[in-house]
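Because showing beats explaining, we let one protein speak, sequence and backbone structure tokens together, and leave readers to judge.
___
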Amino acid sequence: MGVLDEETRVKHRTTDPADTGAGHEADGVPELLLKAHDALRGATHLITAQETPEAEGGFAAFTENLAALLTEVEDITSTVCADPLNEADRRSSLMSLYVRGDAGRIAVLIEQVGDIASGRGTQSLAGPLTGPVRELGEACVNLMAQAHDVLRVPGPLTMLNQGLADVTARQRRLSRSLLTGSLACSTRDAVDAAVLGRCYEECAWRAVALAGIGLQARAPAVGAH
């Protein structure tokens, strides 16, 4: 769990988007989580490895992955807005709205992480902050991979509880350290780290919510025969 091998990546990236069918955006949740995972992993690397020779290429790859995620969210939005809501298809409409909301918010949060990395240029976070921020980011990235895997296996949503608790605990420790001033850093570093922590924590919650919608989409509707 939590590790996306190359075979899995190729398989899902070559899936025809038309296979999901209009009005069934919940079926595309695994692909959304995969795109979000790739974009967030790239953004996290940029934040914690600013001065590496690969930084420029890494930013280009991040931009490409984020664009793919944003395109997917825009496609869902267009489909939802184009199809009139009706009582006969209430369940599908609601699931589409939930998917659009969570995936769209994840994209915004990842973009914010990328904006912080871009704004800092080659200036790394202060030494005491690098480890906690990197580990929090990696925990969130791993949770997204696990959320994807839960849908592909599939498995119970409770399998994500430990990963979510880990992200939340790391964010709380980071926030407490920043507020008490126990980490020696500039105000700018502290502010960036605080924003990053909140972005990662919300990304984690939204990823679990998306996985929940994906699993619910496969469950029979109440009263269905």
